[in-house]
Amino acid sequence: MEGIFTISLDFELHWGVFDKKNRDLRKTCYLNTVDLIPKMLQLFTQYEVHVTWASVGSLFARDAIEWNQMKPQILPAFTNEIYSAYSFASKNGLDDSNTWAHFAPETISKILQFPGQELGTHTFSHYYCLEPKQNPEAFSADLEAARKAAAKFNTNLKSLVFPRNQFEPAFLNICYQKGIRTIRSNPKDWFWEPIPDSRSGLMRKVFRTGDAYLPIGKRTSYPLESIKGNPNEPIQLPASRLLKAWQPKASFMNKMHFSRVMNELNVAAKKKECYHLWWHPENFGDYPKENLDQLEILLKHFQTLNKKFGMKSWNMGEYTAELN
């Protein structure tokens, strides 16, 4: 079996950072993100790269009225309500003046028009699975809301990415019951172990940042046969690397990180292993041209590895045909 290159994208707009960032200050980034996604799709098609778009289900609504119709009947009751998207919406509003931050049904439709692109789920509300007082009933209701929202686009959700990488093994059977067959799990390094947001300390951040540039963590690619799934649970597909966005005034660091990604992809191709790259489309929103240029270099490199070593591109859902 040849090496496999997988990309999964956490598509969120403001749902991904409602508890951390000011909505109005992110307007340009979100507008740029919606504008650049069709350009990303064209690049993925040009270089025959298959991608899973793990999208927050709330994006599927056209406005606040439809969102209220779509939201689950059982809402999360986190100890700290800052983690509830519904508390945020109640306090800050989802009116017509800020649809750019919360709703993108046209973009979702566009994704489904391109070959090899899979619409996955990032839960309906960017649900935090490890925060205190969350519960299985609310999580199940959240996935059911995401499933019904996807039906609007005549598609079934088969792949899931846990928001903030808060991977929760206890919820895997619920995922399976809701039709999810593949989930993205975390890298095996200690600084990527899933934890609540409140426990995300400085040391973990330092090691995550350092590993983006230097070989601190474990090798990032892995054999296909190492991917396992338990009965009545989705396949766990480990992440390999977060692709960091291009930043101005950081030329040396940009080159170090990008070289690390390219070299890891080389290793995966030569060893006939899997390499799973991920990022948020919003990461490209501040400097879209520079990030798209960098992405095209990466995709061209994959095409070279495809011709030289036969490396394939699979989205997350395509693993199920081989492993189930």
Short description:
Strand 1, helix 1 and strand 2 (51-55) form a beta-alpha-beta unit.
Structure, described:
The protein has one domain (4-323): Glycoside hydrolase/deacetylase (TIM Barrel). It has helices at 27-46, 64-70, 85-92, 99-102, 105-111, 136-151, 172-177, 202-211, 251-271, 288-309, 319-323; strands at residues 4-11, 51-55, 117-121, 159-161, 182-185, 235-238, 241-242, 274-279, 312-313. The mean pLDDT is 95. Strands 1, 2, 3, 7, 8 and 9 form a six-stranded parallel β-sheet that branches. Strands 4-5-6 form a three-stranded parallel β-sheet. It is an alpha/beta fold.
**In the CATH classification, which architecture applies?**
Alpha-Beta Barrel
Over the alpha carbons, how many angstroms does the gyration radius reach? 19 Å
The biggest sheet amounts to:
6 strands, parallel
Q: Which segments are poorly predicted (pLDDT under 50) over 5 or more consecutive residues?
A: none
The CATH topology is what? TIM Barrel
Helix tally?
Answer: 11
Extended strand count: 9
Q: What shape does the CA trace take? A: globular
By CATH reckoning, the class would read Alpha Beta
The portion of residues assigned to helices is 25-40%
Q: What is the domain total for the residues?
A: 1
Arithmetic mean pLDDT: 95
Derived from helix and strand composition plus strand pairing, the structural class reads alpha/beta
* CATH superfamily heading: Glycoside hydrolase/deacetylase
Distance between the termini: 16 Å
Q: In terms of quaternary structure, what is this?
A: single chain
